[in-house]
Structures are given as structure tokens and as C-alpha cells.
Design brief:
heterodimer, A: alpha+beta, four-stranded mixed beta sheet, 2 helices, globular, B: alpha/beta, Hypothetical Protein Ychn, Chain: A, five-stranded parallel beta sheet, 5 strands, 16% strand
Chain lengths: 75, 167
């Protein structure tokens, strides 16, 4: 099991989703990906679309920096 | 030529785009929608026709692509992805350069980056048989990611059960 980190806070639509999707596609069963993202569209849609694509969202936590969140996703 | 096998899965969300325009800004719209949808789990088909074919030519600059004299002339004027004009205020091709600069500066994916992302995401590219015939374009003039050369009936079958947009 490996744990990966992806920061999409500097990205804009659609690359927020594109980069997440590409990283998710590299995961093997049991691996996790922690996505650091901003509020709004990324926070609303990254967990939802990951769940829809069969991944498990383990947690969504607010980061130390205001407005940034960490979404932990597992395959 | 249409050898595409069509398997319809009622559970897959699907977006089919008709990429008619060869304009820079409209191609940005095509590839933004396509990559965004594919990234959130949609099956995405893009059917390139007429000026839209410019986006999927191997030669991205101005070159005499096409079979025959008139198609070659058209090919030079139309060019490829790198010479796509913006639909308004093109200023002789200066505006696309300004847009590319602004996109990079604001950390927004450029048209070329979106096209690369579309390839990585496995978006299905199709080319219009009729438009290719008129413009003298062969499948070998197009990028290898183009899955097939199709007519309207096959495209409609592919798009069936999903959302379709004409850009």
C-alpha cells in the first residue's frame, strides 16, 4: 500500500479534475491519495466524482491554511 | 471505414461533442468540456468536422495538407492547432498569442495542454468522413489518437443516451 499526495490548489478547471483523475488512475487497490484543494468547485466535486468512480473517500479535513482542504481517497 | 464497435452501457454517463469550429476559443471550450467530463467519469466522444479537423492534424502549423491543389491551398490558410485564430478580435493572429500568454500567466491550461490531457484521459476522437473528403484530408494526416473516420449515422449511435453539444 502506498500513499500519494497531490496539490491542486494552484490549478483551475478542468485541470483540477484532470490531475486528480490521472493520479487516481495510478493507484493500486488499497493505495491512498491525499488531494489538497480549495473550497468551491474542487471541494464539492472531487470527493463526489471519486465516489462515483468507485473510490472511497476516507476523510475530508480542513488544512491549517484557511480555505484549503485535504481529501483522502482510497482505491 | 467505420469499424467502430458500439457498445452502449446505460450506466455510463456520456458526453458527445461536435467540434465544428477551428477557432482557438471554441476549441478551448471543446477540450475543456471534454477533459473535465472525462475526468469526472464520463465517456467522451468528440466528432471533428469541417474547421474542427484543424485541431487534430499532425501538422500543427500552416502546411499544404490535403490531396489536390485546392485542398492544399485551404490547408495552408487553415493551418492546424498552432495557427487557430480566435473567433473575435483576432488581429491577424496576434490575439491567440496573447491568449496563450494570459493562460500560462494565470495558470490555466493552454489549448495544447488540454489536447494532451484529452489524449491521456482516453477521450474518443472521431473525424468526419464527408468533411475529410471535401478537404482532401486523409486519416494519415490526422493524429494517431483519432479512433475512426465516421459518418453522421455512426456518430448518432455513439452519442445515443448521452448529452450532445455542437461547438
Amino acid at each position: 500500500m502506498a500513499n500519494y499526495i497531490l496539490d491542486i490548489t494552484k490549478e483551475h478547471c478542468p485541470m483540477t479534475f484532470v490531475k486528480t483523475k490521472i493520479e487516481l488512475s495510478k493507484l493500486k487497490s488499497g493505495d491512498t491519495l491525499e488531494v489538497l484543494l480549495t473550497e468551491g468547485e474542487p471541494l464539492e466535486n472531487v470527493p463526489r466524482s471519486s465516489t462515483e468512480q468507485g473510490f472511497k473517500v476516507l476523510s475530508i479535513t480542513e488544512s491549517e491554511v484557511k480555505g484549503l482542504h485535504k481529501v483522502l481517497i482510497q482505491k | 471505414m467505420a469499424t467502430t464497435e458500439i457498445k452502449l452501457d446505460p450506466n455510463t454517463k456520456k458526453l458527445s461533442l461536435i467540434g465544428f469550429s477551428g477557432d482557438f476559443d471554441k476549441l478551448v471550450a471543446v477540450f475543456t468540456l471534454a477533459t473535465g467530463a472525462a475526468a469526472v467519469g464520463y465517456e467522451v466522444n468528440v466528432f471533428f468536422t469541417f474547421w474542427g479537423l484543424d485541431a487534430i492534424k499532425i501538422k500543427q502549423g500552416r502546411s499544404a495538407v490535403g490531396k489536390g491543389f485546392l485542398p492544399k491551398v485551404f490547408g495552408v490558410f487553415m493551418g492546424g492547432l498552432k495557427s487557430a485564430p480566435v473567433s473575435r478580435l483576432n488581429f491577424g493572429g496576434i490575439s491567440p498569442k496573447i491568449f496563450r500568454y494570459l493562460m500560462r500567466k494565470n495558470n490555466v491550461a493552454t489549448l495544447e495542454e488540454l489536447v494532451e490531457a484529452a489524449k491521456v484521459l482516453g477521450i474518443n476522437f472521431y473525424a468526419c468522413e464527408m468533411a475529410m473528403h471535401i478537404l482532401g484530408i486523409q486519416k494519415s494526416d490526422l493524429i494517431p489518437e483519432v479512433k475512426d473516420v465516421l459518418g453522421v449515422a455512426t456518430f448518432l449511435k455513439l452519442a445515443d443516451g448521452g448529452q450532445t453539444l455542437f461547438i
